[in-house]
């Protein structure tokens, strides 16, 4: 179970990271900002790398919660995949940690905790839907991950794309869909995410992610 103290520490770490490079963030300052002792901070995360790993994990969960909401929205598969692509691009543009997770490009000043081997879909259950995020910020899931998962290995960009693709297929496939149709849907889902990420890395000269994605997705 995630405690209020742990969430407060993660919030304080996120605020600190917005103000200075991660290398300049001090554990004692994070604890003070959260209103807890430094010992509580070390009890929760072990060390600064543990705090960084938990913070990055929470941002990944927030991004996935936004994907869940996009897939649960109105319209047919094409419209909901377009919404997923729009959210992916917006989350990556507005949140440096989400952008790093999705692209693998960790900017100077960000925490870049090592990804432990063995990350798999079994270790990354899909997060519960969350409330709408504030401007430029990915949402926090309404049900926070348990501590063991939050402290566990982090997803690679490929892991995240695969999670989104598989979840989209699970939500959008109709009863009685053939294997060939499921495979085609999976390709469309992955294409939508990858096109969204291409817009983050190289913004189109005209239009936006919606205009780029819609023509290659299944009709709604």
Question: Which descriptors apply to this entry?
Answer:
220 residues; mainly alpha; 10 helices; elongated
The outline comes out as elongated
How many β-strands, per DSSP?
0
The proportion of strand residues reads: under 5%
Number of helices: 10
Query: How helical, in percent, are the residues?
Result: 55-70%
Q: Taking Cα atoms only, what radius of gyration do you get, to the nearest Å?
A: 18 Å
Class based on secondary structure composition and strand pairing: mainly alpha
Mean pLDDT: 82
N-to-C order of helices and strands: HHHHHHHHHH
End-to-end gap: 40 Å
Largest sheet: none
What are the low-pLDDT stretches, counting only 5+ consecutive residues below 50?
116-146
Quaternary structure annotation: single chain
Structural write-up:
The chain is mainly alpha-helical and 220 residues long. It contains 10 helices and no strands. It has helices at residues 4-19, 27-34, 38-45, 48-71, 77-94, 96-103, 147-150, 157-172, 179-201, 209-213. Helix 3 (38-45) crosses helix 4 (48-71), helix 4 (48-71) runs parallel beside helix 8 (157-172) and helix 5 crosses helix 6 (96-103).
